[in-house]
Design a protein that fits this description.
The complex is a heterodimer of chains A (169) and B (424).
Chain A: H1 2-19, H2 23-41, H3 45-66, H4 72-94, E1 99-100, H5 102-136, H6 139-168
Helix pairs in contact in A: 1-2, 1-3, 1-4, 2-3, 2-4, 3-4, 4-5
Chain B: E1 2-5, H1 7-26, H2 29-44, E2 53-59, E3 63-65, E4 69-78, E5 82-88, E6 96-99, E7 103-108, E8 113-121, E9 126-138, E10 144-159, E11 178-187, E12 191-197, H3 209-215, E13 219-227, E14 230-237, E15 242-243, E16 246-247, H4 248-265, E17 269-276, E18 280-285, H5 288-299, E19 325-330, H6 335-346, E20 350-356, H7 358-365, H8 370-392, E21 396-400, H9 406-410
Chain lengths: 169, 424
Amino acid sequence: MRAFSLVPIVILAGLPVLIHPTSGFAAVGAVAGILCAAGALGRLRPLVTAGGSLTLIQYALALALTGGRSSLPSAIVLGVALALVLDVSDFLHRFHGAVLTPPALRCQAKHWIVIALLGALTSGALVAVAALVRISGPPALHTLLAAAGALAAAAGVAGAVLRRRLERG
Amino acid sequence: MTWRITRAGLSTLTLVAVALLLGVVSGRAELFLVGLPLALRVLVARRPEAPRYTLVHELSATRLFEGERATLTLALTAETPLPQIEVFEPLAPSAEPLSGNPRTVLALAAGETARWSYELRFPERGRFALGTVHLRFWARSGLGVHEAVHRDPKPLHVYPRAAPVSRLPTPLRTQASAGNYVSPLVGDGIEPGEIRPFAPGDRIKHVNWRASLRLGRLYVTRYQQERNADVVLMLDTLSQVGMGSATTLDASLRAAVSLAAAYLARKDRVGLIEYGGVLHWVRPGSGRPHFERLLSTLVRAEVTFTYVAKDLGLVPPRILPPQALVLAISSLLDARFTAALGDLAGRGFDLIVLAVDPVRITRAALAPSPRVDTACRLWTLERRIQIAELTARGLRVVEWAPDESIELALARVGRHRRPRALVG
């Protein structure tokens, strides 16, 4: 299980370096990977969050430095890898020292596969829809979609806060 | 049952926020895409319905001796699907898991039952409360959890370990009930006592035919009665030395249990006085239920600090019968206990003191060094002087090291004792 957690961490740390392969990026990638691995294996969740944040910053920098070239597949892979790193490290943290029965392990493996597939398929579908809108949709639709997205995000945050208050009350 | 969002949810939301922020700042759609699987992880993790289940908790034994094992068996039946259940039973620090694990993660379909067990060893005496099981019903994502506590109290008593003792000091005085000791009184028994001329009312089977033929008239054999005795164990709980379960008090308790079991097996009545900060006692009695009563008292024994010296005159005669053999078990560390022993001897009690050696126990608890060695040697010399003084005052003191057999230590008392005159 511990060895398995290293697979998405390697992908997470290596992807920004593949986009912009310099020694400086490799060093930052290594630091992010070490932070994530230390967090996952040492059961320190803040380290995993810090490693993930560092990877995202590095990825944003890599995209900015490579210029206008789009890299949507790498974003999908990075997103899925990040979700898996969080899930696996959390699983290791939760059940450290416990006996895991085979049905429980099977159930968790299924959940990871579902999360990875769902993330990849939803992202792919979104990219396809975005491409379709860009090619065939009127320019005003871009603005409308952006506004709808912003409103949905605001509604989501308000809903989460309201639900939290209701649960407390 | 409570439901809460875990810290993993906060961690995920933080990373989503970082991705969105970077996406807005850099103006790159890729960063929004990176945040999408994370956001999906949160959206998919809806709150599951309240779990329904049945948990059965079984304990193989409720009473054990130190070092014995008990098996705990749990059976969990799911009434609703339970994709990830964490079951945990907190145990006493001294309990050693031998097989299995008190923390298990399971996945059960509706109607399915999981049964598992684990074996524990209890190396230290004490009263343990088992049967409180904590259950966590995790959402598969780990972002939310239902928590519940199942309480089915199962008390477990771990008694001090008893060692077999076959040769014991014989009490000087016997009681009225039948027992294993030959009494000076004549009556019914199997040990021949005296021969006297036949008198009306004597039973024919008691006629001593050999003596009758030799002396030309009927003689009958009188037999000595077989009687039991009262034994009172007096335990010193004023002070102790040592670490963990290797203390002078623990050694004293083991000796007390061994002696109680051996005397009760001889049909004697055994009582107990716990002489410490609080005076506890058990009236002399016999039989298996009485042994259980003594064990229940001994398992609770502990040192309670006090400045007050307890007066043994307060102990009622039914607890401390005047004819009883008093076996005092003490490390002789507290002068108040030594004074109480002098009081008992002065009142004419048949008294034997089993002096538990605190030096060996302390030495075992400390790291070996020349300073410890010197201190222990000096302490041993001081104890020898103390025991010599007590012996000179008329007390029978037997030194006992806990790694030595009690039987061997008590053999130094001698089987045939006579009452000693008290010097002062």
